[in-house]
Amino acid sequence: MPAARSILHLDMDAFFAAVEQRDNPALRGKPVLIGHDGPRGVVATASYEARPFGCHSAQPMAVAKRLCPQAIIVPVNGERYGEVSEQMFAILEEFSPLIEPVSIDEAFLDLSGTERLLGSDEAVARRLKDRIKSELNLTASAGLAGCKFLAKLASDMNKPDGLTIIRAEDVERVLPPLPVSKLWGIGKVTAERLGKYGIRTVGDLFKQPVEWLKKHLGNDAEWYLDLARGVDDRPVTPDREAKSIGHEETFEVNVADADEIRRVLLDQAEQVGHRLRRHGLKARAIAVKIRYGDFQTITRSLTFAAATDATAELWQAARGLFDKWSFQPVRLIGFTAERLSTGQEQMLLFADPARQRHEKLDAATDLINAKYGNRTIRRGGAG
Ligand code: TTP
Ligand code: MG
């Protein structure tokens, strides 16, 4: 029998809002909404003081303001949160080499077998939270369990500043009363469909005959049944392949000028290129997302012959995709670098002079921007 695993899931509390409150005493203890304060603004996150009013992530800013008129609205400062996220990951890396980043403020760590070296998993979780508190002056919530599904469930149970442990013997008590939507992969639509048959909780689902579930949930039925029993064998994978880096921008008014959109896209490609190089990553593919005035949203992607972190290549690909669209006024444009890898395996057999030139230009740009502030140097030629 394989040794029991110990998985830690860690998630920062009200991340963007907590960073702003930490850095600006005037915001502490107050309801704060992070996001753009305009008719089309969306809430990125709400401070814990704003949540009892019903404010939450992904809500239109106008709705959040109506719910909590006294809230202080702070624009998103992505660069800043990115820096803090890197500091947080640097702390995590001291505790385990097996870290799977999930998002900017969230990760899984595999602590199996580290007991002799680091102490019990619970002691490690406490030390990690303490380090985050003392070094970053921020709180995180942690969950400990024998698999990823339960660890993530646990970290969410006592937010903020929580530490929740679900051991094997707790599973039968903890899981059955939870709503089915807590099972990974069951979204709103599936939950509603199951609700029509009286299946609302994990316990309800577990009681159904397998054949019935297969009929209604298809091939995923067995996966859900496993989760419902607290069984999830997925490993913690430090591989960053699945991750992406992107930027998107929603405009105050629909933009009818294609050149203006190209300029924004170039800016996004530059920022993404800079972030890829800073993290030592290369993209195998890119995607451009466009939302028209009528809300129709289209994403197009392109795969490179060889992974790249060169702004010129990212931009060329983005522009190629963009120019294929028949142009209509746009309310959102986004650029994402996808299928990221550390790039080492992509070493070119034959040196490509154009690529080398681009690399030198990018390196020089990054250096100068690092020294004199971002955006000191930017590329021309968006038009
Ligand atoms: P979350 O961890 O989902 O939320 P949170 O850290 O703000 O709050 P919680 O204490 O419940 O974990 O997301 C991390 C950050 O990602 C969040 O601070 C803002 C950003 N974000 C968005 O920009 N849009 C979104 O829809 C969500 C969910 C998060
Ligand atoms: Mg969080």
Oligomeric state of the chains? single chain
Distance between the termini: 63 Å
Total of DSSP H or I helical runs spanning 4+ residues:
14
Small ligands present = thymidine-5'-triphosphate, magnesium ion
Give the number of domains.
Answer: 3
Structural class call reads alpha+beta
CATH superfamily of the largest domain: Reverse transcriptase/Diguanylate cyclase domain
Secondary-structure element order, as H and E? EHEEHEHEEHHEHEHHHHHEHEEHEH
Give the spatial strand order of the biggest sheet.
5-6-1-7-8
Supply the CATH architecture of the largest domain: 2-Layer Sandwich
Number of beta strands: 12
Q: Which class of the largest domain in CATH terms? A: Alpha Beta
What's the overall average pLDDT, rounded?
87
List descriptors.
single chain; 383 residues; alpha+beta; Alpha-Beta Plaits; DNA polymerase, domain 1; Dna Ligase, domain 1; 3 domains; 5-stranded mixed sheet; 39% helix; 22% strand; binds thymidine-5'-triphosphate; binds magnesium ion
What can you see in these coordinates?
The N and C termini lie far apart (about 65 Å). A hairpin with a 4-residue loop joins strand 10 and strand 11. It is built from 14 helices and twelve strands. The longest helix is centred in the last third of the chain and has 21 residues. The protein has about 375 residues and is an alpha+beta fold. The protein has three domains: about 170 residues, 2-Layer Sandwich (Alpha-Beta Plaits), CATH 3.30.70.270; about 55 residues, DNA polymerase, domain 1 (Orthogonal Bundle), CATH 1.10.150; about 130 residues, Dna Ligase, domain 1 (2-Layer Sandwich), CATH 3.30.1490. The site of thymidine-5'-triphosphate has 15 residues, from strand 1, helix 1 and strand 3.
